[in-house]
Amino acid sequence: MTKKTPPFSLRLTFEERARLEELAGSEPLGTYIKRKVFNGKGAGKRRARSRQRRPIKDEQKLAQVLAMLGQSRIANNLNQLAKAAHIGTLPVLPDTEREIRKACADVALMRRELLRALGHRTDTEPSS
After folding, report:
1. Closest C-alpha to 75, from 92, 93, 100, 96
2. Nearby residues of 34 by Cβ (< 8 Å), 6 or more positions away
3. Are 29 and 20 a contacting pair, CB within 8 Å?
4. Residue from 58, 61, 53 nearest 24 by CA
5. How far apart are the C-alpha atoms of 69 and 45, rounded to whole Å?
6. DSSP for 45-93?
7. What span, in angstroms and rounded, lies between the C-alpha atoms of 45 and 109?
8. Cα dist. 12→2, 21, 66, 79 in Å?
9. What distance in Å separates the CA atoms of residue 23 and residue 26, rounded to the nearest whole number?
């Protein structure tokens, strides 16, 4: 029995990944990256991407919105407000704390939906 080579992982920002996917076109990302890194040598046989993606009217705009959401610190600020409310340093009524928590959940939902619209698997989706 032969051992498989362990996978290599690379963390990218959402913008970097979106750009790579755009450049790769229908080519699988791994194949595209290998072809670029090894100047077209040793990348193996090219095949069409197996992952089905829903057509997106304006993928670049969705990527920009996701980037703006990530840079905005809205989620962090809402979380800080919720923590301050929880420990009592921010005097609020229970309704106010509930609204802050709902706002945090809404931001998380927006992020998941944007990722899904861009064709990325979210943390809450099972891997296939």
Report:
1. 100
2. 42, 43, 44
3. yes
4. 53
5. 38
6. ------S-----TTHHHHHHHHHHHHHH-HHHHHHHHHHHHHHTSS---
7. 39
8. 31, 12, 14, 25
9. 9
CA distance 122 to 29: 18
Could you say which DSSP state residue 38 is in? T
Per-residue pLDDT of the chain (128 residues; tens, 9 = 90+): 677 888 888 888 888 888 888 888 888 888 888 888 888 765 555 455 455 555 566 777 777 777 877 777 787 887 888 788 778 888 778 887 788 778 778 878 887 777 777 777 666 555 44
pTM: 0.40
| Amino acid letter, 84 | A
Q: What's the token pair of residue 97?
A: 């704390």
CB 75 within 8 A of CB 104: yes
Contact 59, 115 (CB under 8 A): no
In whole angstroms, what is the distance from residue 17 CA to residue 62 CA?
Answer: 13
119 Rama sector, left if φ>0, alpha if ψ -120 to 50, beta otherwise: left
